[in-house]
Amino acid sequence: MGRNIMILTKPPYGCEESEKALRMLARMMDQGENVAMYIVGDGVEIAMNSQKGDLGKLLTELADKGAEIYSSSEDMEARGLSSDKVLPCVKPTAKIFEEIVEDAMERADKLLSC
Amino acid sequence: MKTLTILLLGAPYSSQYPEFAVKLAEAALDKGHKVNIFLYGDGVHAGMKGQTPKAFYNIEEGLRAISKRGATVLACSRCSAARGYVDGEFDDAAQRYPSSKMIDEIRIFSLYGFVDFIRESDKIITLGGV
Fold first, then answer.
1. How many structural domains comprise chain B?
2. Model pTM?
3. CATH number of B108's domain
């Protein structure tokens, strides 16, 4: 099946988009789709390992299904999210826009964003 | 070389989307791709002349820089007119609506400009919007 990229920009608990995106991606993976997620801006809050809400668990479940999860290290550092505060399923990534362009133009079949 | 189109709906400074758009465009240009940006809705404010942010990335300078490197940037004419950017009727010779408030690197054009972008693009990324 195809490779799908999700660029996640919205904060996890300030609106419902992140949750909707995670649930949709999980269903896509159940149907055999390949998923890579790139988290930038306020979206990086979803990577916090101390969160009590459910979205961190949803993110980990997605990774357990095989999704690749990358998060902008620059945007995490700007918000005080050091690597010891990040969920193990998340890969902090420098120069994330280069990675997104490389993936989007050479490997991905579909681009999604929220 | 492939073509990437970015549909930008988010306004500068109240959102980070214009900054993401410029950084994506820079990364794509670095890799030798063709880049189009279409400013839509509040995204047209990204093209306003004379921006002087103190604590934020300067979007005007970013858009000028990627235009200089060959990116094509269009702004939706209806969205621009609604927000006071359009000074008169469409200029057939210049293929743009006149504007004293929008930077010259950006052409104010109809939504058909985005249709053409879709036709020529390998990939489209949407940034911003509710």
1. 1
2. 0.94
3. 3.40.1260.10
Q: Say if A61 is an interface residue toward chain B (CB within 8 Å).
A: no
Neighbour-count burial for B83-109, b at 16+ CB within 10 Å, e otherwise: bebbeeeeeeeeebbebeebbebbbbb
Residue A73 sits in a domain whose CATH number is 3.40.1260.10
For residue B92, give its domain range. 3-127
Quote the number of domains for chain A.
1
- Nearest chain A residue to B34, by CA: A105
Partner-chain contact A41 B16, CB within 8 Å = yes
The ipTM of this complex is 0.91
Cα nearest neighbour of A110 on chain B: B123
For position A6, what pLDDT does the model report?
98
CA dihedral B26, B14, A8, B24 (to 10 degrees): 0
